[in-house]
Amino acid sequence: MKAAYQKREHTGSYYAASANERTEFPELKGATSADVCVIGAGFTGISAALALAERGYAVALIEANRVGWGASGRNGGQIINGMYGLKQIRERHGDSIADLLWDIRWRGHEIIHDRVRKYGIQCDLKNGYVEVAKKPKQVSWLEEGAAEREAHDFPYEYEVWDREKTRAMLGTDAYYGGFICHRDGHVHPLNLCIGEARAASELGVQIFEQSPVVDIEHGDRPRVRTAIGHVEADAVVLAGNAYSRLEPKHLSNTIFPAGSYIIATEPLSDDVANEINPGDVAVCDVNNIVDYYRLSADKRLLYGGACNYSGRDPADIKSYILPRMLKVYPQLRDVRIEYEWGGKIGIVLNRVPAVGRIHDNVYYCQGYSGHGVCASHIMGELMADAIGGTMERFDLFADLKPLRIPGTQWAGNQLIALGMLYYKLKDRL
Ligand SMILES: Cc1cc2nc3c(=O)[nH]c(=O)nc-3n(C[C@H](O)[C@H](O)[C@H](O)COP(=O)(O)OP(=O)(O)OC[C@H]3O[C@@H](n4cnc5c(N)ncnc54)[C@H](O)[C@@H]3O)c2cc1C
Prior knowledge:
alpha/beta; nine-stranded mixed β-sheet; globular; binds flavin-adenine dinucleotide
């Protein structure tokens, strides 16, 4: 079945305004051939394409809009452990894979740091991420994070902060404690994405922008078709995440798009930036519906949060997010908001990234439930492994088949919205 898409330019985000370059890869026209065709140039698709190119594959990467146009170029930039659902994998597969799981959990960090170094990507990559407790009972969750690292002989610095230290390090009375991990951190996500795409292109990946894929003809060499061109390849990777509508027979109602929104202040004075975040760390609370924030390289506060399942963005993102920011930082009430934007995260029901094959040679990978910067890098590598015949990590995830809600995608979204309402209420109690 053909999917209908419009071609778009970047959203009006701070990231698009401060991108290192405006990519202009050609539109796909006529017939092209490759070993592997990847659909979607976000972190998942680019990470897979780059890993494949590094291993000598000829790759075509097709993007409906621009490189990093989706969640990858719009997110909070928080480099965090995105591997939820590992508890279920551990329960199902037993303790013997515990070490493998622990390594997988941190592999995304490693890939990002290695690529930034190897390809000289300018993307303001920094270490330091703090999870904060908004309620006294959440402090014990922070302690669990420290205990987990302790048990694994974790080689990076981490520390639980009491209320005093949290207040001193984050310039707010809003939290009961914090947990800092120096392996986590933050990044300008669009510049990371563009840098990785540039590296892939230099290794020979053919990148096509403004080229929405409308259909895949399956077979020994599937044909991936846009309105005016096609790529034939031995294998295909679907990496459109929450924005994809391809292959509904196999994938509809397995991933649910939810909106998340961010505002960016004007650059803060050095004094104010030092008061609210002297360690220049990323911050996220531990609620179910999280608020997350960090300073940009030019000292703007990028404050994000909320979640919306209606499929429509709020008419005024600033009015939606600003009260949340001022609750934490009332001292910023006179600061100007210069950018506001949103994007779609892909929620999956069991919170484990959904990985699998819809045919022997057509792979998919999606659904990071809002924690995808690192996870998408891990999954990109895992796709490249699977295409090369190394199935161990792929099978681990593919065995956990994505949960599907029966009925239409709309009905599924309403069910998820109801579930999230429950969690929202829980956060308030
Ligand atoms: C506002 C926001 C804040 C977030 N904050 C964080 C955070 O701080 N930390 C974190 O870890 N995660 C965060 N996330 C989640 C994270 O950004 C995503 O999980 C991750 O970027 C997903 O990458 P992806 O490549 O799978 O998908 P995307 O980046 O969405 O890329 C998919 C691409 O596929 C393209 N596409 C879709 N269909 C087609 C088609 N038919 N033909 C061609 N191309 C197609 C789209 O145009 C798009 O560019 C956030 C997400 C949002 C929206």
